[in-house]
Amino acid sequence: MRILSVQASTMTKCRLIGGYLSTALPGISTVIMVGLVINMPDSWMFVVITVTCHVFVVAYTIRACYSTVLVCNRIKYTANDHQQEKRPIQAIFVPNYNETRDTLRENLSMLACHEYAAQYYEVYLAMEQTEQEAEEKGSDLVREFGSLFRYITYTIHPQNLPGEARGKSSNLRWVSRVASDRYDSLMQSNVIFTAMDADTHLLPSYFDQISSYCSTHGTDNHTMFVAPIVFDRNAAAVSPLVRCADVLWSTAGIAGLFPTSTVKTPTSVYSITMTLARYVGFWDPGSEAIGEDLHMYLKCFFATRGNLISVSVYSPASHCNVEHSDVLPHMPRRERWILSQHARFQQACRHMWGIVDAGYAVRALFALVTDYTIKGLDEKYGIENDNETVPWWRVVVLMHRLYEAHFLPVHYLIDVLACSLLPLFIAVKPNSVLDYVLVYTNHLRTAAFFGVVIQMVLYERLHSTALALRLVTIRNAPPGLIKNSLEHVGVSARRGWIYCLDYILFPVAGTVFGAVPAIKAQAMQFYTTRFAYKVSSKPSFRHAI
Question: Strand 191-195 and strand 270-273: pairing?
Fold first, then answer.
């Protein structure tokens, strides 16, 4: 018995150490990079890592450009594809906290003006108990929009539930379980769960394409639907740095949505079959799920042993650029820009805290590779020990995408600084390997720079296409509540000299809202995985901007 107790204690310690090392892995890799630059700048390890980082960045920009072109073309092609096939029930979850009634009314009105809203849309306003007016707001909106949907209700997510952390994921877990229980009682299984932000505007084509897919493949499968996002509501009102950061954020998500991509990670808006949601045990409620969209993808991916079916939905989801809560309607531009930059940095810190998913993915991968020989590891990470073959190439692609998202921004910044400053501090021998590497990587950085410029040019086309389709939907909205709610909806076309700043400032925006928050998150995750979640403020369109 004593031997068994010692073995159990040793296993527990190994798991704790392994868990800590996997969580801190991004930060550990950064420390190693800095150590190489300082102590071994002419080593083969530094040379290989530097060239690899530069090649990965160039490859990413090429993929982002390629995917943006294809996604934009598919959006145009499928915009008016309205088939009359039997459709699944669309259970739409709108998690929200301290959102204005106008923001929620716009969201619901955009959904209500869809042709099939009254027949197939069931809306769940996922409120938080910590919001004082949650019940009053929820009941008022349900009463206003009750006749416009097949079903609409609101849920109240209790606070301080055991094992839960504040955030979107824990709220989605609560509302999805409520919905699942309801469909059980109604004996309905042909259901799609959609998670969206409170400020998201979805086009009819989003649900049309999902319905078209389900009419052929059904809903009794493990499928996730992923759409591109665009920021076309208040881009003219925010700082060019903020606008540029959001363009880069949008194209980062689009980079994986080309038709033949085997890994399609969602950004903010996505749908899954109710079958898949039940299979993986719904959304995770803990602090590891702060990056709820990517975390849910990883959970589904590993729970299905890499056999998750991910489908691109070529219908742009409209979002707002974040604004500070202190912004006033007629505030001077300079003050407004400073506040928007502050708010975007706070949002970036929350986004980059999602690097905790790197550790989650490493632990889940270990469970997959070892074929669950460690007792309990498969249950913890939702991995089913069945006979499905693991598509290892897809696993490799996923880990590469995670490296791009959670490691590469910081590694690339370190490499750029090292390649630029090393000649000032050490004597680089002519025709040495390091000399060739410095010249070669300089060419790669130039290629990457122009790759991002092309990427942003292509985004202009996507932005205008998405805005045009949204305006058509708004103009065709029926009179009454829907028309009134959409009267002041945000519209921001990318025209004018001010947008030229985006093509100059993107290196600064990528560093300030990408690499710097990532470094901060990596440093903090050496000693905590807890994050003080703060909801980003949304702009008000009831006044002219």
Answer: antiparallel
Q: Hey, which bits of 22-131 come out as E strands?
A: 89-95, 121-128
Which pLDDT belongs to residue 3?
Answer: 55
Question: What is the helix, strand, coil percentage profile of the chain, to 5?
Answer: 60, 10, 30
Q: What is the CATH number of domain 12-531?
A: 3.90.550.10
Beta bridge partners of 156: 127
Q: Are 323 and 535 in contact (CB under 8 A)?
A: no
Q: What's the average model confidence in pLDDT over 446-460? A: 94
Which of residues 41 and 405 earns the better pLDDT score? Answer: 405
Nearest alpha-carbon partner for 318 in 455, 462, 210, 212: 462
> Average pLDDT, stretch 102-117?
92
Q: Is residue 71 classed exposed, middle or buried when 0-12, 13-18 and 19+ CB atoms within 10 A define those classes?
A: buried
Domain ranges of the chain: 12-531
Report angle CA 284, 287, 290 to the nearest 5 degrees. Answer: 75
Full-model pTM: 0.91
Quickly state the pLDDT bin for 313 (edges 50, 70, 90): very high
Instruction: Average the pLDDT over 70-87 and give the result.
Output: 79
Q: State how far the Cα of 258 lies from the Cα of 473, in Å rounded to an integer.
A: 25
The more confident residue out of 422 and 181 is: 181
What is the rounded distance in angstroms from the CA atom of residue 337 to the CA atom of residue 257? Answer: 32
